[in-house]
Amino acid sequence: MLDIRLELTKEPKEKPAKGAPLKFGHIFTDHMFVMNYTEGKGWHDARIVPFQNISLSPAAMVYHYGQEMFEGMKAYKGANGEVFLFRPDMNAKRTNDTNTRLCIPHIPEEDFVQAVSEVVRVDQDWIPTDEGTSLYIRPFIIATDEFLGVAPSKTYLFIIILSPSGAYYASGLAPVGIWIEDEYVRAVKGGMGFAKTGGNYAASLIAQVKAHDGGYSQVLWLDGVERKYIEEVGAMNIFFKIKGKVVTPALNGSILPGVTRNSVIAVCKHWGYEVEERKVSVDELVAAAQNGDLEEVWGTGTAAVVSPVGKLRYKDEVMMIGGGNIGELTQKLYDEITGIQWGKKDDPFGWRVQL
Ligand code: COI
Q1: φ, ψ (nearest 5 deg) of residue 283
Q2: Pocket flag, ligand 1, residue 302 (CB < 6 Å)
Q3: Cα of 133 to ligand 1 centre, how many Å?
Q4: Which helix (H) or strand (E) holds 238?
Q5: Running along the chain, 355 residues long, what does each successive block of 10 average in pLDDT?
Q6: 168, 208, 264, best to mutate for ligand 1 pocket (most atoms within 8 Å of CB)
Q7: pTM, full prediction
Q8: Distance CA 171, CA 157 (A)
Q9: Residue in 221, 302, 305, 306 to alter for ligand 1 test, most ligand atoms within 8 A of Cβ
């Protein structure tokens, strides 16, 4: 159990007005959680302080070798003002899976959840309530040793910032176009693909720019060895409905084990769908699209929630899905997942955590 010192801001900021359009990740709340790690001492000095810049040596290791990790979570406000988190234990566990890969010291899972809960509680008035909005939570850890050698740092900062946000895609729930990348790759088995670390996203930027230039909003990655099997999208996992079955790439070490991915699989099974977690080749996908078997495509992610995909491009092939409209199952999944998150629907899985 952390002993968290609380220093409240003397200059509260203006909150976004109800009904005003909220973009994703541009505005930050009044406070943040901070905790230090020092070798020999462990994690210490847990505190919630006014949101502020941090000062680091330009030699801090995170700037040079990218030893860092991050998580993405959300807080929601229910109809009677209750504050909910969604499966925070999954993020706590994934944090330590990432930490293991990046040689970052573990944070006890209960301390992680306590830190998130406390800072959200302090800034709960910032949780937006308009349809499709939430308080995005960004926990992250950075290596802070002042040292230019390549080695695990001996000191770290764990910080949690909060951002009242709208939909991740500017288009909201309108289906997005996705570019299947056949030149660059994101990750390979044995690398960091399963970990939530900035390097994976830095590696994705060049293809994202290429996709944007081609008029697409995201990149769908193929495996790093054969460039044949579907892996994940830049900011989400990917699902297909093929001849009535729900199909998604199996977790293979280079794919992020998404919390929303896991939840969507559980909900689909609960509804009686056959769900296949397996290798999906791009050739199978193109063939399914050509012969009309590819019924729906959607992405899942904390930020992206359940996002319909209306168009896929692979080399010279452009595949339109569902006439560019949101699919029936995709819409149902969006309604179910957000309904559970917002406290509007029953939570048969016990995923919702009320603060
Ligand atoms: C999330 O969905 O929370 C993520 O961390 C993805 C990020 C690229 C926005």
Answers
A1: -65, -40
A2: yes
A3: 15
A4: strand 237-242
A5: 97 92 93 98 98 97 97 95 96 98 98 98 96 94 97 98 89 86 93 95 94 93 95 94 97 94 97 97 94 95 93 92 90 95 94 97
A6: 168
A7: 0.95
A8: 35
A9: 302
